[in-house]
Amino acid sequence: MKITPTNSLVGAYVEDIDLSAPVESDAVDELVSAWHKWGVLFFRNQNLNDEQQVAAASIFGDPVPYDFAPTTEGSEIVHKIDNEDGKPKGGSSNWHTDATWLKEPPRGSMLQAIKLPSSGGDTLFASMSAAFDSLSPSTQNFIEGLTALHHGGSKLGANRIAKKIPEDAVSHPVVRTHPVTGKKCIFVNRLFTQGINELNPRENEALLPMLCDLSLRPELQFRFQWEEGDIAVWDNRSVQHYATPDYSEARVMHRVVLAGDPVE
Ligand code: OGA
Ligand code: MN
């Protein structure tokens, strides 16, 4: 197995590994620590069936059912991100952390490209620990004590999935500390964050977009160009991601979500 960082500060490629077979415990340790270090790992040409994808995801956490998206036939855990009609769905084409409207948002997700358009449909990733590090110490100090309200309903719109999303908004720290690396990570996003609790509306108008839009800086990003059968697994505590809505042919992805942990 060979782990090679991308040319960016987020993401690494893993080569010479077959995720359809059991992975030895030394390799598991190496993968998990690379995942924490680089935020997202890419495995080319894996072509996993549902059972294999769930087993591969379990290297990084506990695969759990995700009630907010339809599953593949025959699996309760693998679900389908289905843009079969060639029309990108809106939500994930905003920089976001997955499901921050849950009290314990997923620790991470593993996505596999099943069917891709002939061009387009890349996914971008941004390091939220590098985003925090890019701020001045004064701003870092100021935002560390703040909390923000997250809700899923508003921007996701009136799809059937949104109906199941909890009614109540949840609060999370604006800066979370990664439970393993101890790194501080920005934990607000334009898709789900409604406002910073301790600030008044005018202050929110100025500060919240500034924090959410740190992910827009190219030097914090990596852009992954998919091929069918590729796998990406991201650490939802330390990176945000963005689905590029620049295609008009079918794009189908299979996703496995990992159980969340407390946001602290
Ligand atoms: C997701 C997501 C991005 C993509 O699965 O949570 O945002 O490019 N996907 O499909
Ligand atoms: Mn997402």
Largest sheet: 8 strands, mixed
What characteristic shape results from the CA principal axes?
globular
| Helix and strand pattern | EEHEHEEEEHHEHEEEEHEEEE
Give the count of helical stretches. 6
Residue stretches low in confidence (pLDDT < 50, at least 5 long) are 155-160
Q: Helical proportion?
A: 10-25%
Strand content: 25-35%
**Integer average pLDDT:** 93
- In total, the number of strands is 16
Secondary structure class reads alpha+beta
Termini separation (Å)? 33 Å
Give the ligands present: N-oxalylglycine, manganese (II) ion
Count of separate structural domains: 1
Describe what is shown at a glance.
This protein is α+β, with helices and mostly antiparallel strands and 264 residues long. 20% of the residues lie in helices and 27% in strands.
What does this structure look like?
- The structure is a single chain.
- The protein has 264 residues and is an alpha+beta fold.
- It has 6 helices and 16 strands.
- The two termini are 33 Å apart.
- Bound molecules: N-oxalylglycine (OGA) and manganese (II) ion.
- N-oxalylglycine binds next to strand 6, strand 15 and strand 16.
